[in-house]
Amino acid sequence: MNGALFLLTVNFLIAQLFCVFFLVISRRSRIPSAGRWFAAAFAVASLSAIFEVVIRYADIDRLASFGAFSSVLGALVMIRVGLGRLYGVPANVWAMTVLFGASLTLNLMIYDLPRGTFFHSLGYQMPFAIAELICAIAVYRSGRRETADRILMALLLLTAGNFASKVYFAVAFSGGETAQAYLGSTYALVSQSLSAVLVVSTGLTLLAVIVVEIMDDAKANSEIDPLSGLLNRRGFDARVSQILARPMSAYPHCVIVCDLDHFKSVNDTYGHAAGDQVILSFGRMLAGHSPPEAICARFGGEEFAIFLPSTGEATGYLFAQGLRNTFSSLVIAGLPDTVRLSASFGVCALAAPGDSIADAIKGADAALYDAKKSGRNRVNRAGQTMTNSPQEWQAQA
C-alpha cells in the first residue's frame, strides 16, 4: 500500500467516525436533522475512498472515477442542507440540483481528457470549490458570529481555495494522465494529506458548532421555570445584571414583586392540577401584558417578579395596577367559572447606579408584605406606611 492509498484508508475511517459522532450528538441537539445531514454527508464522502481504491485494483476506471467525484460533491451538497437546518438559511433546492447535475455531466465530458491538463483540472475541481463557497456563504448569511461560526466559515473558504488551487497544482506538479497514475503520484500524496487535514478540521468545527448550540440551549433551559414558562430566579438575575451593566443604562428602573393571594386554599380546595393552571395562567398574563423589554420571572411557589428597564416607580405602580385588575377578572381553566382569584404587588425603584437590584427586591418584598397585611388584592410602593385600596390608586399614582 503506497502513501496515497494509506491516506485514502485513513480518510475513510475518519469519515466513518464523524458519521457516528454526528448521529450520537444529533440526539441531544435542538435541531437533530442538521446532525443527521452531516452524518449522511460524511458517510457518502467516505465512499470516495472506496471508489479510488477500486480505480487502483479494478478495470472500471470510468465508473469508479465518476463514483468518487459524485460522492464527494454529493457530500458537500448534504453539508449545505445541514448548514441550512442548523443556521436557519435553507438551501435553494433547485440551484443545488442544477449545480449537482451540471457538475456530473461535466465530469463525464472531461473524463477522456488527460488528468494533467488545465481543462480537466478546472472541470474536476471547480464544482467542489463552488459547493464549499456556497456553504461558507450560508454561514455568513446566518449572521451568527460566535468563534466556532467564524472558524467554520474560514475553514469552508480555505477548503474552497484549496480546491481552486488544485486547478494549477495538478498541472504544475503532474498528477498523472490517468486515474491510476494519479494514485501513484507524489501530488496525490500531498493532495490527500491536505484533504485529510481539512476534512478533520471541518468535521471538528461542525461538531463544535452543534455542541455550542446544545450548551446554549441547556443554559437557557436551566434559566426557565418549566411550569410558568417564565425565567426562574437564576435567569432573572442574569438578565437584569446584563441591563444594569450597560454603560448607558437609563435610570430609574423599576422592580415589581407579586404574590398570588390565598394560593394554598386553591390547592387544598381544587387540587394541585388546578393550582398549576393558576401559575400557568398568571405567567402567561405577565408575559402577554408586559412590554417587550420587561424581564418576567417566577421566583418560586406563587411569587413572581418583573423588572421594567428605564421605568419610574409611578409608571411601574400603574402597570402593576393594570396587572392586578386583569388577573382579578381572569377565568382560569380547572376552576369553576364563578371563581376569581387575586394577587398582591409591591413596587420599588432603582433610582441611581448605586442602587442594587437586591435592595430593590427587598424593598418590593416589604411593600408586598404590607399589601398582604392590609387586606391583599392591592398594590403598594416601597416606603409607604399605608397601602391603597383598589379605589384609591388612581388618586395617589
Architecture overview:
The protein has 397 residues and is of the alpha+beta class. It has 2 domains: 3-221, Rhopdopsin 7-helix transmembrane proteins (Up-down Bundle); 233-396, Alpha-Beta Plaits (2-Layer Sandwich). 66% of the residues lie in helices and 8% in strands. It has a 5-stranded mixed beta sheet with strand order 2-3-1-4-5, sandwiched between helices. Helix 4 packs antiparallel against helix 5 and helix 5 (118-142) runs antiparallel to helix 6.
Low-pLDDT ranges: 385-397
Q: CATH homologous superfamily name of the largest domain?
A: Rhodopsin 7-helix transmembrane proteins
- The CATH architecture classification of the largest domain is Up-down Bundle
Treating each run of at least 4 consecutive H or I residues as one helix, how many helices?
Answer: 14
The total of beta strands comes to: 5
Query: N- to C-terminal separation?
Result: 87 Å
CATH topology of the largest domain: Rhopdopsin 7-helix transmembrane proteins
Strand content: 5-15%
**Widest beta sheet: strand line-up:** 2-3-1-4-5
Q: Largest beta sheet, briefly?
A: 5 strands, mixed
> What is the ordering of alpha helices and beta strands?
HHHHHHHHHEHHEEHEHEH
How does the helix and strand content classify structurally?
A: alpha+beta
In CATH's first tier, which class of the largest domain applies? Mainly Alpha
Total domain count? 2
Helix content: 55-70%
* Shape category: elongated
Nearest-integer average pLDDT: 87
